[in-house]
Structure to design on (212 residues):
């Protein structure tokens, strides 16, 4: 995971990096994080020693913190890049709408053709920018929802280790204090997975797509 995070940080520090590259690198970080999280869940299930269990939980908390930091850095980059793209497109539109008039019909025709070419290129750039911005906006929506979930006061919710006696209290607490405050299903699932462990985590690991 360290290698994936370092690659992402290097790309974020390069002003020439585009949004799609950042999204692809973050996807690699996310996939690695999920693999680590899965391995961690299996390990703590097999851990009987309370001391070792606490060490594993502290280590996983540090990994989650690194992942969250990467996610917030990506969020900031995408917002800045999206704003810059809109500004550049407006400048191009302003330039293509100006220009002087020709002294002859030939000059006017040539000028009109040039403007048409510029406009066509501009329209293509706008379409590409809108598509990239739509993707970025979708990602940002999920990032913001997950960020909100992780920032909810920890005193408001319970953890669940698979004990059937505690399930009703846990799920009621989750529905009232967490689920009701979020609209994104990925954010709800992400937050739920961080609050279940040992036997309680088994049903949620089954939701992961099979890796090829």
């Amino acid at each position: 995971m360290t290698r994936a995070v370092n690659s992402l940080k290097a790309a974020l520090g390069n002003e020439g990096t585009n949004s799609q590259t950042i999204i692809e690198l973050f996807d690699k970080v996310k996939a690695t994080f999920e693999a680590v999280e899965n391995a961690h869940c299996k390990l703590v299930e097999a851990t009987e020693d309370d001391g070792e269990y606490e060490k594993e939980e502290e280590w996983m908390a540090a990994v989650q913190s690194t992942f969250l930091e990467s996610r917030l850095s990506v969020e900031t980059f995408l917002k800045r890049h999206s704003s810059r793209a809109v500004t550049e497109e407006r400048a191009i539109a302003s330039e293509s709408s100006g220009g002087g008039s020709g002294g002859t019909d030939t000059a006017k025709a040539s000028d009109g053709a040039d403007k048409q070419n510029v406009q066509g290129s501009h329209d293509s750039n706008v379409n590409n920018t809108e598509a990239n911005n739509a993707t970025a906006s979708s990602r940002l929506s999920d990032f913001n929802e997950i960020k909100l979930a992780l920032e909810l006061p920890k005193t408001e919710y319970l953890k669940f280790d698979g004990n059937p006696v505690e399930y009703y209290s846990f799920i009621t607490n989750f529905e009232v204090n967490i689920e009701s405050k979020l609209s994104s299903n990925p954010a709800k699932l992400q937050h739920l997975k961080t609050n279940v462990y040992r036997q309680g985590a088994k049903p949620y690991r089954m939701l992961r797509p099979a890796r090829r």
